[in-house]
Design a protein that fits this description.
heterodimer; A: about 110 residues; Alpha-Beta Plaits; B: about 525 residues; alpha+beta; 3 domains; globular; L-aspartate oxidase (chain B); L-aspartate oxidase activity (chain B); FAD (chain B); oxidoreductase (chain B)
């Protein structure tokens, strides 16, 4: 589930508020979006993909963690917002879709894409 | 209240809804698209990505593509529909390349490989095209019920704008339901918006359903995660907790072995049959497959990790609203269905098409439904916005008795009957019948009282839709007294030649089933 909206990185563009398919965020009074309905998060990672400044972190476990993970540690090892880089979104990056050639699932088959 | 008029209203912003909106607009219609979430991110495709049933127009290749899965689907698919879906999918994928400039990967000869789509990229570009087509997009605006005119023709829909916290209504000449299948809030990747709402709306308008017994799809995921990408598990070995191999378990045909084992003990997995070259390619092909592993410090190629099976219901099952015309019309005038909300028996028969066939169906049926709805609306000659309309919603919005809340309790009650593997996947009449009894009681309770205020009406309607969906599924599953396609009855393990026919389902308070009349092409 969504665990972190980084106050240090957020530019208050509200993109995550807009794109979340299950309406998890509310606009925050100080600009930083609030995780208002975390239990509705479906762990789809789309907010992280759309965040232009890598300010979000979605933990892959589909239940809320007892405590949010350590933002500084996630930022230090490059995990904060990393999904955006992995799919090649963002200025100066090549869309990952263009390189998405996977292995063949059987010896005679064509490679799996997507 | 936001009150709009349009020629065509599309409910749903996954691929089927997006294609429907674009094609209706290209046909000259004024179009509104209302999505429960956000056009571009919501639905089973956007966050996941998918293979596509894309086959070059060479007769031998097309023949092989159609013949390859007929037996698996219990011979319930239709060659005519398969052929036209292959044609339309080929055309739409070419449009994605040429109009949307989708960055398909290229092979060693420099030719684009158009057999798959990365979800976020695909749907981001579809949103751009929908908006450039002049379609008015209402995000975070779930439809909650259909509107009909005095003659019973569908004439629009009402819903709720979640971000503005107020209701909306669209009076329209025709409606396309592209609201997805029903995964019962199982947390399968991207599927929590798919609560079967469209099928409920359609049934309230008098539409029929087809293939509802083929609704027991389950996907493999690392335990306690949402990531239901299953293709790479074909490189996996499954193990008992003591490290011995779980014989017969697999991604393609061994999921019931995994399910049976999970009833009493954990199942572990390791993707240990992928070469280093395969492993590198996997990361390029499906970045999201690796998110749970990387973020939990697991190397899936060398470490054992626990897996679970998440229900995908009619998202990867094949049942849905019955299609009665080539333009994806239904038995109700003015109502069209597309994508996972519609039956996919026409091209898959009784076995899930997985992503590939469903993606092809979404773009093809979306195209036809959008064009059909535009034509129907044009035929009304400008009367669409002038008709007197009434709302059709019942359960969850207009209870029979005094209103009370409680949608979460109803959701939990339905999940208790449809998520367990020994009820839905490992089917047996002796377990299906009592489950259906419980679901029928749940429906009567809900029908009597459930009604919530404001945005709560959306949750109440989703709870009603899930309850209705579960009852259609199990009524159909009990009626089909044989094993065919993905409907495997432990108590009736053989395929019965006398039941080589599609099964229709419908009704709300009383659920009916009957065989479809007319021959199934074979």
């Amino acid at each position: 589930m969504i665990e972190i909206v980084s106050r240090g990185r957020c530019i208050a563009c509200d993109k995550c508020v807009d794109v979340c398919p299950t309406n998890v965020f509310d606009r925050g009074a100080d600009g930083v979006p609030v995780i208002a309905r975390q239990s509705d998060c479906q762990t789809c990672f789309m907010c992280e993909a759309y965040c232009p400044v890598d300010a979000l972190f979605v933990d892959p476990r589909s239940h809320a963690l007892p405590e949010p993970p350590d933002e500084a540690a996630l930022a230090a090892d490059g995990t904060l917002g990393a999904y955006r880089a992995q799919i090649g979104w963002g200025r100066g990056r090549t869309p990952g879709a263009g390189r998405a050639i996977g292995p063949s699932l059987n010896p005679a088959g064509a490679p799996l894409t997507s | 209240m936001t009150d709009l008029t349009a020629d065509v209203l599309v409910a749903g912003g996954g691929p089927a809804g997006a294609w429907a909106a674009i094609k209706a607009a290209e046909a000259g219609a004024d179009v509104v698209l209302a999505d429960k979430g956000y056009l571009g991110t919501s639905g089973a495709t956007a966050s996941a990505g998918t293979g596509v049933w894309y086959v070059e127009p060479e007769p031998a290749a097309r023949e092989a593509a159609m013949a390859g899965r007929e037996a698996l689907g219990g011979y319930l698919a239709d060659r005519g529909w398969m052929a036209r879906v292959l044609d339309q999918t080929y055309a739409n994928m070419n449009e994605l390349a040429e109009v949307s400039r989708y960055p398909f990967p290229v092979d060693g000869d420099g030719r684009q490989i158009r057999r798959g789509l990365q979800g976020p990229e695909y749907m981001r570009r579809m949103r751009v095209r929908v908006r450039r087509s002049g379609v008015r997009v209402l995000d975070h605006s779930p439809v909650t019920e259909l509107l009909a005119d005095g003659a019973g023709a569908v004439a629009g829909a009402a819903g709720y704008r979640l971000r503005d916290d107020r209701p909306f209504r669209v009076r329209a000449g025709a409606v396309v339901l592209a609201t997805g299948g029903c995964a019962f809030l199982s947390r399968a990747l991207g599927c929590d918006v798919n609560t079967g709402d469209g099928a409920l709306f359609a049934a309230e308008a008098g539409a029929e359903l087809s293939g509802m017994e083929f609704s027991n799809a389950y996907a493999i995921a690392p335990a306690f995660t949402s990531v239901t990408k299953t293709a790479f598990y074909s490189f996996a070995t499954f193990y008992h907790a003591d490290g011995t191999v779980l014989e017969g378990a697999g991604s393609r045909r061994g999921r019931s072995v995994i399910a049976r084992t999970l009833l009493s003990e954990p199942v572990l997995c390791r993707i240990d049959r992928a070469t280093p070259e395969d492993q590198r390619a996997m990361r390029l092909a499906q970045a999201n497959f690796f998110l749970p592993f990387d973020r939990q410090g697991i190397d899936p190629f060398t470490d054992l990790f626990p897996v679970t099976l998440l229900a995908e219901g009619t998202v990867r099952g094949t049942g849905g609203i019955r299609i009665t015309g080539a333009d994806c019309s239904t038995t109700v005038p003015g109502l069209y269905a597309a994508g996972d909300a519609a039956t996919r028996e026409l091209i898959c028969g009784g076995f899930t098409g997985g992503g590939s066939h469903n993606a092809a169906w979404a773009m093809s049926s979306g195209t036809w439904a959008g064009q059909g709805a535009a034509r129907y609306a044009a035929g009304l000659g400008g009367r669409a916005g002038a008709r007197t309309v009434h709302a059709l919603g019942e359960a969850g919005v207009r209870p029979e008795g005094p209103a009370a809340g409680g949608h979460a309790d109803y959701v939990a009650a339905v999940q208790a009957e449809v998520l367990p593997y020994d009820k839905n996947l490992l089917r047996h009449g002796g377990r299906l019948a009592p489950a259906l009894d419980v679901l029928d009681r749940t429906w009567r309770d809900l029908r009597g009282t459930l009604r919530e205020e404001g945005a709560g009406v959306v949750r109440a309607r989703s709870a009603a839709a899930m309850t209705a969906h579960a009852r259609w599924m199990y009524r159909a599953a009990l009626t089909r007294t044989e094993t065919r396609g993905m409907h495997k009855r432990q108590d009736l393990p053989d395929q019965d030649p006398a039941q080589h026919r599609r099964l229709l389902t419908g009704g709300l308070d009383e659920i009916w089933t009957r065989p479809e009349t007319g021959a199934v092409a074979s």
